[in-house]
């Protein structure tokens, strides 16, 4: 893996460009549906990651493969994944994000697609904004898998979607996500080899967690380069013993 793909400076530059591009749309199409895109929110049209996450979860089909139970999307951005989950049949969906504009965006797209009765948009840093004791059958985060320096300080909330300084958020997710699932539920992480997988495994070991790759696919980056990136859907469980 060339080091440039893991460059946090490159990811931060992508964040800046995606906010200021003249062709940044107000409405975009994904999975054959139209979606609203607000300013300051991660734009799925400039990255394959949202489409890949939908594919890994089996939510990219129309009509979707039927789902049931409850679903939490951490870092929801525009809310596409959460809304597609509601359309697939999840009867209780929460879309959470640290970016207030993303929370607004997810609520807007829930209204656009008629699922406001089953989808709640919440301002939350990972799980901090959820109700105490709230559990889900599926917890999912399409993470900001590029590691930044421990000392890096975000210059905008939009950068949170691109880089995780010192993997602080990843460590908290590994620690807390298994505690947010129902008995028999799943804590899932969308990661890629643009991130530091060995570091993630070391954190899992340190926090008493086990990682298992459920699905993977290789995707051309597209908008900002022709590099091939491997994306993974990882299940997080408690280590035995």
Our count of helices gives 6
Structural class: alpha/beta
Question: Major sheet: order of its strands?
Answer: 5-4-3-6-9-11-10
Q: How far apart are the termini?
A: 35 Å
Overall geometric form = globular
What integer is the average pLDDT?
94
Please mark out the parts with pLDDT under 50 across 5 or more consecutive residues, or reply none.
Answer: none
Computed over alpha carbons, the radius of gyration is: 17 Å
- The number of strands is 11
Main sheet? 7 strands, mixed
Beta-sheet strand percentage?
A: 25-35%
Write down the secondary-structure element order. HEEHEHEHEEEEHEHEE
Q: What fraction, in percent, of the residue positions are helical?
A: 25-40%
Account of the 3D structure:
This protein has 241 residues and is of the alpha/beta class. It has six helices and eleven strands. It has helices at residues 8-20, 49-57, 80-88, 100-112, 168-176, 197-206; strands at residues 27-30, 33-36, 70-74, 92-97, 119-123, 136-142, 146-148, 163-165, 181-192, 209-222, 225-238. The strands form three sheets. It has a seven-stranded mixed beta sheet. It is globular and about 50 Å long. It starts with 7 loop residues before the first helix and ends with a strand.
SSE layout:
Blueprint: H1 8-20, E1 27-30, E2 33-36, H2 49-57, E3 70-74, H3 80-88, E4 92-97, H4 100-112, E5 119-123, E6 136-142, E7 146-148, E8 163-165, H5 168-176, E9 181-192, H6 197-206, E10 209-222, E11 225-238
Parallel strand pairs: 3-4, 3-6, 4-5, 6-9, 7-8
Antiparallel strand pairs: 1-2, 9-11, 10-11
């Amino acid at each position: 893996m060339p080091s440039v793909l893991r460059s946090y400076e490159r990811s931060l530059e992508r964040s800046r460009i995606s906010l200021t591009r003249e062709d940044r749309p107000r409405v975009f199409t994904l999975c054959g549906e139209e979606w609203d895109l607000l300013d300051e929110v991660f734009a799925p049209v400039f990255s394959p990651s949202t489409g890949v996450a939908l594919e890994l979860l089996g939510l990219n089909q129309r009509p979707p493969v039927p789902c049931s139970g409850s679903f939490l999307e951490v870092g929801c951005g525009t809310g596409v994944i959460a809304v597609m989950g509601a359309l697939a049949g999840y009867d209780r969906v929460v879309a959470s994000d640290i970016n207030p504009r993303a929370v607004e965006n997810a609520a807007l797209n829930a209204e656009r697609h008629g699922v406001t009765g089953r989808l709640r948009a919440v301002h939350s840093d990972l799980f901090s904004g959820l109700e105490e004791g709230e559990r889900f059958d599926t917890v999912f985060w399409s993470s900001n898998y590029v590691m930044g320096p421990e000392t890096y300080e975000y210059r905008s909330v939009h950068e949170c979607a691109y880089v995780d300084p010192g993997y602080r958020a990843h460590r908290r997710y590994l620690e807390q996500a298994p505690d947010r699932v129902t008995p028999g539920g799943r804590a899932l992480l969308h990661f890629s080899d643009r991130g530091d997988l060995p570091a993630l495994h070391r954190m899992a070991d340190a926090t008493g967690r086990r990682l298992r790759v459920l699905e993977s696919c290789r995707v051309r980056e597209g908008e900002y380069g022709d590099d091939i990136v491997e994306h993974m859907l990882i299940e997080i469980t408690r280590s035995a013993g």
